[in-house]
Structures are given as C-alpha cells and as structure tokens.
Amino acid sequence: MADIAEKTRKSPAKFLSDVKKEMKKVSWPKRDELIRYTAVTILTVVLMAIFFWAVDLGISKLIELILD
Q: Where is the chain membrane-spanning (predicted)?
C-alpha cells in the first residue's frame, strides 16, 4: 500500500501545474447563470429557514401544551 502512495506522489510544482491545466478545462457559468443560481440558492435557504422555524415553533407550542 505504501508503494502505491510513493508511486503517485508528485512534487508540489508538478501538482500545481496539473491543477492549472485542469482549471483551464472547467466550464465556468456565465454572469446571468451565476446570478440565477445564486438567487435560487438564497431563496432555498430562506424557505428552509422559514420551514424549520415553523416546525420548531410548532414543537415548542406542543411541548408547552403537554407540560401545562
């Protein structure tokens, strides 16, 4: 197992060179796509926060009713 790790080990310069080559292959989103994806993400996070707030409030009220 150690032999495999030693065979695949690269120098930091070679690693960074490979990273640079791979980053050139990446398909980056256009500005309008990025704005749309960001808006969808923010909206999803807000809706999930509201959902969990409502569930938490409901459970809290239920526990209050049980304990009183």
A: 34-55
Residue 15 to residue 22: CA distance in whole angstroms: 11
Per the listing, tokens 């065979």 go with 7
In three state form, how does the secondary structure of 20-46 look? HHHHHHCCCCCHHHHHHHHHHHHHHHH
Stated pTM of the model? 0.61
- Output the CA torsion 53→56→57→60 (10° steps): -160
Rounded CA gap, 55 and 63, in Å?
A: 12
